[in-house]
């Protein structure tokens, strides 16, 4: 087999630089280009030494880990033992993901049934992949692996950020209670215009059996004021929540003003890991006829005033 050392050097320089850059993005670090280049240069030189220096101990597991550690230090600095461990772990995670993607894609394009038919290892521990489309396939598979890793890490980071905004909510009306998962929306500024009571949004389907027949489905397309006007005298007297219903004006996404059907609860208990539970008495619950989260992560939206309310229980306020 003919090995072109210059090609090995520049390939490793590009790969190590890309892996280090991806690690920096995953860890939200901003190292200088000179630091990244120095670390990638060290990795490329170490790869070339496999063909020039006949020193068995130079390619041992301990030395490989040491070289990787020096590359991480050159790129991101020390920053303490915990910071170093996280950077080092992220560096190897990116390496394993991209290498797995390269090997997996090479296996897909091969006609051989043996997954290791195109993989060979040198005496010093180097990896050789034999492809029909060597350079082009390597570039495509490597970039695809990086793209998949970046997308997965971004999605995981968004889920972590979402978890910090999720609360457990218990809604109490008389002797009954409903438990839902709710999202704290700092941009929610919906108030009842007369009383300035904050409005929490919740899926109407949660109270499907407690609303008048058909209201849950009709809220998807009909205005709430039309439903209220259909409450005749008999229904108003027989419906237990008639005195709790409110109409709250709001501005829709298209800019049009509409009315939202709201319910006045007795109290709402908010709880979340790391925070003491607290009750909120002064609020309304607006009913949305649709689905608030397509993934089903939450079924209600908390007004920021509720999360910032006093954690000590207070006496219920008079109905608005």
From TrEMBL:
<protein>
    <recommendedName>
        <fullName>Sigma-E processing peptidase SpoIIGA</fullName>
    </recommendedName>
</protein>
<feature type="transmembrane region" description="Helical">
    <location>
        <begin position="90"/>
        <end position="109"/>
    </location>
</feature>
<keyword id="KW-0472">Membrane</keyword>
<dbReference type="InterPro" id="IPR005081">
    <property type="entry name" value="SpoIIGA"/>
</dbReference>
<feature type="transmembrane region" description="Helical">
    <location>
        <begin position="59"/>
        <end position="78"/>
    </location>
</feature>
<keyword id="KW-0812">Transmembrane</keyword>
<feature type="transmembrane region" description="Helical">
    <location>
        <begin position="129"/>
        <end position="149"/>
    </location>
</feature>
<dbReference type="Pfam" id="PF03419">
    <property type="entry name" value="Peptidase_U4"/>
</dbReference>
<feature type="transmembrane region" description="Helical">
    <location>
        <begin position="36"/>
        <end position="53"/>
    </location>
</feature>
<keyword id="KW-1133">Transmembrane helix</keyword>
